[in-house]
Amino acid sequence: MPEHRREGLVLSIAVGVVAMTFGVLADAAGLSLPQIVVMSAFLFTGASQFAAVSVIDGGGSSYAAVGSAMLLAARNALYGPVVSRFFRGSALRRGLSAHFVIDETTAMASNQADDAAAADAFWWTALWLWSLWNIGSVGGALLGSLIGEPETYGLDAAFPAAFIALLVPHLRRRPGRVAALAGGLLAIAAVPIAPAGVPLLVGALGVIPGWLVGRRGPTEARP
Fold this sequence. Notes:
Blueprint: H1 3-28, H2 33-43, H3 46-57, H4 62-73, H5 80-83, H6 91-98, H7 103-110, H8 115-147, H9 158-167, H10 174-190, H11 198-203, H12 207-216
């Protein structure tokens, strides 16, 4: 088995374990097993799924849940130009590949030496990742009723931890730090006055001052 396929499999197994946490949290938030299956199969982006479930569990509206999920999923659109050069063929094939353009598949594909290996890494990682994410989600949902409240095991911290993991690399640059600080302050200010889930959307406005700072000067990472 080529090295990039082995790496994709190992990565997918790790993500499958995280999917079990999602299944547990989704079950605790009141989602049915069919709803969890559909969300994992068709939304298929962990951060967005955690965001939606967290909003629902906090009593937020379906609009806030969808808005939060779409906000986090929007970053995947930026990966399109990175991986599009690896794919040739019909519009149907390219459209199908778009469903699997996420952090992990993009990272695996863009790390290869040539386009053929990149496409192979993308599809094998996508296949294993999608399969194990859905298996893990279902397994977590079935286990949810057995383990009781997720807070007992600290599973309720999974989404904040995942969000921080996405944020940390951007803190190396000044615009990222400004955006994080501004977004955090905006979200905190919105908590007492906004419905559940809305502060997350409000916090997204922090990218504006970050973008303005980025336009004013160099953004090299700190040594």
